Amino acid sequence: MRFWLASLCLLLTSCASPPPHVPQARPDPTKEPAYTQAVQQLSALNRQAEGLLKAGRSQEAAAAITEGQPLQGRLLAAPRPPLAAMQAASDLDDLYARMLLLNHHDGWARMTYQKDAARWRSWRPRNDDSARYLRRAEEGMAECDRRLKE
Fold first, then answer.
1. Cα 135 to Cα 5: distance, rounded to the nearest angstrom
2. What pLDDT does 24 receive?
3. How many domains does one find in the chain?
4. Is residue 2 part of a domain?
């Protein structure tokens, strides 16, 4: 009798629904000091690459751009990157696309500008900075289109 009673209790409790899953709030990576440091590092790499590009040292500029790509990925992986992170990522895309144009990789440059423009089109809240970055990406796409038609 005890066996049957224990089996019945076990059966009834195993049929009960599990407790509701309470989602845990994920920590915001943009609030971490490492995230702020990554934004600063990427901005510094962008300035370095821009200076190298203006000085005609394209190989060194390409190395700086390549070094910045993992940082860019880390910054954009956040659910809602702050404006400074978006700007740093966009600046890297602009530098990369310009390097591609210098090397006559117009289609790849257009794709890079297009990706950047898509990010800025969905950026909220829209402001003067986001409009300026979107315009820069759209102008880059137009330049690529012009060169692709030649």
1. 74
2. 74
3. 1
4. no
